[in-house]
Design brief:
By secondary structure, this protein is an alpha/beta fold. The chain has 8 helices and 14 strands. The strands form 4 sheets. An 8-stranded mixed sheet has the order 5-8-2-1-11-13-14-12, with helices on both faces. It has a two-stranded antiparallel sheet with strand order 3-4.
Length: 271
């Protein structure tokens, strides 16, 4: 199975969780799975921005990215976070290569347009060339992808665009022909009204959770990202699952772990 795993910056900030994550990827590879990693790093971007006295602005959870902020995003995601994760994977016995959209022309973006606001250099994946990722997988390497990329027009005067990693994961999963899309997070899954993990959710059930105020705060963008992945990859396994154990990626493939998203009706809603 070819698995694209999206990892948030929270799992990469400290040595312990990062080491566990690398062990989980190593365990999945030992079982014969191919793994592609897509990572974020919002907290790390925030910290360097503060150190450089760069004002933070957000719109609907997206970082408004002016030219100076775009340079910080490239330094953090394409540099610090990516290379630190690659080194940790190597120490765990996982041959890996860090890339961004520019490497091999793997992906380019167009500006993300939102009514009433200028997001600056925030992009959405437009063109994907899977050749480099496929070559790395064939060579038994794990591609570790930072979600920064040039624009589709290749304007050398522009900085790299910042792409929300949750949103980038879905089209990359499709372009790389992955069989599973796993969001490893700091939660056990999506919870219902009684607080228990819901192991299966459809789009309309997700909508019910939001309307009822059961899914709030940071869970809403997680649901949005999972549903986007489901729309882009209707044949793939799409899951939100917990990251905090050495076999987290293999465990995420089990039915009793995390939340699986599917296109079924809401007739048997568990909310």
């Amino acid at each position: 199975m070819r698995i694209l795993v999206k990892i948030g910056g929270a799992q990469l900030e400290e040595t312990g969780p990062r080491s566990q994550l690398c062990q989980a990827i190593a365990a999945a590879r030992k079982k014969g799975h191919e793994v592609v990693v897509v990572h974020g790093g919002g907290n790390q971007i925030r910290q360097l921005g503060r150190d450089l006295n760069i004002e933070e602005r957000y719109h609907d959870g997206l970082r408004v990215t002016d030219a100076r902020t775009a340079e910080v995003v490239l330094m953090v995601l394409g540099g610090q976070v990516n290379r630190t994760l690659v080194a940790a994977l190597q120490r765990a016995g996982v041959p890996s290569v860090g890339i961004c959209g520019a490497d091999g022309g793997s992906f380019a973006v167009r500006p993300l347009v939102k009514p009433g606001v200028d997001l600056g250099f925030v992009g959405q994946v437009d063109i994907v060339r899977p050749e480099l990722v496929n070559t790395l997988l064939q060579g038994d390497f794990v591609p570790v992808i930072a979600t920064v990329a040039p624009g589709v027009h290749g304007d050398a005067s522009q900085p790299f665009f910042n792409i929300n990693a949750d949103h980038a994961a879905a089209p990359l999963c499709k372009a790389f022909s992955c069989d599973a899309m796993v969001f490893l997070t700091d939660v056990d899954g999506v919870r219902g009204k009684d607080g228990s993990v819901l192991h299966d959710l459809s789009p309309c059930e997700c909508e019910d959770l939001v309307k009822a105020g059961v899914a709030t705060g940071g869970m809403i963008p997680k649901l949005d990202a999972a549903l986007l992945a489901l729309r882009e990859n209707p044949e793939a396994l799409v899951k939100i699952a917990p990251a905090g154990q050495p076999d987290a990626l293999l465990a995420a493939l089990r039915e009793d772990v995390g939340t699986t998203f599917h296109q079924n009706s809401c007739a048997t809603s568990g909310t």
